[in-house]
Amino acid sequence: MINKKNAMQDYTLREMMAIAAARQIRDGDIVFCGTGISMLAAMAAKHISAPSSVIFFETGAIDSRLEEVPLAVADPRVMYWTSVNGSLADAFATMQNRQTGRQVVGIMGAAQIDRYGNLNSTVIGDYFKPTVRFSGSGGACDVASFVGRTILFMRHEKRKFVNQVDYLTSPGWLNGPGGREKAGLSGGGPSAVITNMAIMGFDDDTKQMFLEGWYPGVSPQQILDNMAFEVDISRAQEVLPPSKEELRILREVCDPQRLILG
Amino acid sequence: MNTSENKIMDLSTAIERYVRDGCHISIGGFTLNRNPMAAVYEIIRREVKNLHLYAHSNGQGVDELIGAGCVAKLEIAYAGSGRFAPTCIRFRKAVENGTLAVEDYSNYQMTLRFLAGAMGVPFLPTRSSLGTSIIEKWGFAESMRQSDPKLPNKKLVVVDNPFGEWADTARVVLVPAINPDVTVIHVQKADRQGTARIEGLTFADIEQAKSAKHMIITCEELVESDELRANPDQNQIPFFCVDAVVPVRYGAYPTACYRYYDYDPVYLNDYRKAARDDERYKAYLDEFVYGMNDQQGLLDRIGTERLDSIQADPQKGYAVGLDRK
User: Is the ipTM here above 0.95?
Assistant: First the structure.
């Protein structure tokens, strides 16, 4: 166990989130990155624990050398020192292709999530008269439809962890076991949700979200208080805080300008 | 098909000729990169109305066309400009105020729709979006679709795999082709006949270009055909798809153009602040769009110091160390 005293309070929650997501990436994964913190997680993983992972963008860039953190998936920084530059058509075909698609892990965020990891990034309220309009799917629905597994970023708030999403933009496990197969979707579904308080997993049998780990300084009850639905907390453990080396790489190598870390 | 030898024209002529009230249009680029912004600003200055706009993730250009009131209907996958606007602000306001009709697709679906248009087939299949609200909820009512001959009668169709279980697929989503009246893209290099070269990622520009009835290319550099033909494998747009070639330096500004210039964080941050408030947005339009005769006017207003700050490093393709806060 890490000595909590030394590690306590010398990192931010965003740093904890980026590292928690980076730890989910395995060496050899093809990592589909959305905008923002998912890029940092992918960059950190590549420098820390998954040097052979491939960073990949829906815009078509494959294995970019990210010397500066991109602020969008079309940022010219994603185009530098790639192995191949494809197009949108190529990038999504790579994910729809069953050989390559199952090696892809997608990292993305959303405005709402339900217990099965279904995501809404389109509207709050009625689709035809929305209270709040968001960007829409972009590539998120495609990625969630096709790839081997997805890692989701969320803020832990009651209005975001909801019983039913207002609009189902990107498919998680749909309505539970067998839901994806019934709809005609291949690929895996969500494997983890990384929040500002915790790491949530999905049960192999029920496909429902459960609490896998809480961050130091947060209690499982606090996490439940920030969700509109109940989850199993019996399997949860405290998450290891970021190590000095993880923090050094995140701060000095990945985002020295703190453009994403804030 | 236009095989004329010399398609060079000025931007206002090209826009006047091909971008008319009510026409169906698509623009190239992606979020904050290589949007044909000089053309977008010219469309706004010419006060073109009731456009039907097709976009995958065209970000800044889409938001400015919507903000200026040029767009009545939008088919789109993603309205955002990266960290500068996770949701495009004037887009969001227009949807929430009910002044813009929107049909939502995914990025791959919009790409396939342009590709279908480019291929001359009525639709293409994908496995994306099964089980989602993209299938269920139609922004354009079927009655509206029936009454508009320029729209397919359905948003999309889910069908069982007609080849049985071939390719281990039970069913697919068919998305309808798009053939815009006009597509406008900005490229690094073109010749006078319209052969064009995009450096860096092409996004869906090539499909958008080939699906359109008319095509306007704006380019950073007008070059001799010999220069392009010496390395034809680096060219993407055949000249017969092109109707107008418009040389415009900084034609994508304030979005980026790989190996030429970066996006301008100052402009995009100022834009975001202005876009949040109707009065300030009107002032923005008056000062930076209606108040300019052309893109050169905007560049003069921005000044050489800021333009120097976004100059791309020739090897990296972007402005190394640019302050992007």
Answer: yes
